[in-house]
Amino acid sequence: MALRKLRTDDDPVLRKPTKQVKEITDRVKLLIEDMFDTMYHEQGVGLAAPQVGILKRICVIDIYEGTPYVLINPVIIQRDGEQVGPEGCLSFPGRVGEVSRPNHVIAEATNLEGERYQIEGEGLLARAICHELDHLDGKVFVDIAEDLHYESEDQ
Ligand code: ZN
Questions:
Q1: Which DSSP category does 17 fall into?
Q2: So which residues are the catalytic ones?
Q3: What is the pTM of this model?
Q4: Cβ of 42: how many Cβ atoms within 10 Å?
Q5: Which one of 19, 26, 38, 89 is most buried, counting C-beta atoms within 10 A?
Q6: Ligand 1 centroid – CA 63 distance (Å)
Q7: pLDDT of residue 152
């Protein structure tokens, strides 16, 4: 198990575009393993490579505790409906805001075996897919959230 250092707040790497993964090398596999370790350690439900300082189109998601998804070179191919709800991000510790997202999305991505597959999400999974894919384009939720505040202010 290896944890990577999380990039946070005004770290410029969070707002840079990322590059397509051309080949799933051992280095890429190790990165993905470390991303899962880091995400679980921080009790997150998703993590994108720029959040650990790597500008590659890779993210990992596990919102159901034990159903991990690896998304390499993901693209959203269908989006429907709308949901508005609270969102947070490991790169912006303690902050929360309301974000509007599609309620249902289908994305296509490459898995660790190098095969393209489709991931379909509703509700929280749709939100997670959109949030993580935004990271790959250098977009972060704090720039689109309404009522952005620190969680500690909720009490
Ligand atoms: Zn995030």
A1: -
A2: 132
A3: 0.96
A4: 13
A5: 89
A6: 13
A7: 87
